[in-house]
Amino acid sequence: MATDETLEHLTAFQERMNAMPKRRAELIADARAAGHSWPTIGRALGMSHVGAMKAATVKD
After folding, report:
1. What whole-number distance in Å separates Cα of residue 42 and Cα of residue 46?
2. Alpha-carbon distance 60 to 19, whole Å?
3. pTM for the whole thing?
4. What is the mean pLDDT of the chain?
5. In this predicted model, what pLDDT tens digit does every residue of 28-41 receive, in sequence order?
6. How far apart are CA 51 and CA 42, in angstroms?
7. Read out DSSP for 2-57?
8. What domain range includes position 29?
9. Pairwise CA distance, residues 16 & 13, whole Å
10. How many C-beta atoms lie closer than 10 Å to residue 54's C-beta?
């Protein structure tokens, strides 16, 4: 893989990583809209319900 291509892949990867908190918050909102409790969402995320609630709010 050429160096320039490697850097392009790295940049694309970082862009996806930067979008993850917003996407996670969207999925949490979907789970809440489907009637799932905070503790259930927290378990799905591998965190406490308080952590899930914090993850649901993303600051731009």
Report:
1. 6
2. 10
3. 0.82
4. 94
5. 999 999 999 999 99
6. 7
7. -HHHHHHHHHHHHHHHHHHHHHHHHHHHHHHHTT--HHHHHHHHTS-HHHHHHHT-
8. 2-56
9. 5
10. 12
More confident residue, 33 or 60: 33
Structural domain tally of the chain? 1
Check pLDDT > 70 for residue 1: no
pLDDT band per the 50, 70, 90 thresholds, residue 50: very high
Determine contact, residues 41/32, Cβ cutoff 8 Å: yes
Number of residues assigned to the chain: 60
Spatial contact of 41 and 28, defined as CB atoms under 8 Å apart = yes
> What single letter denotes the amino acid at residue 28?
I
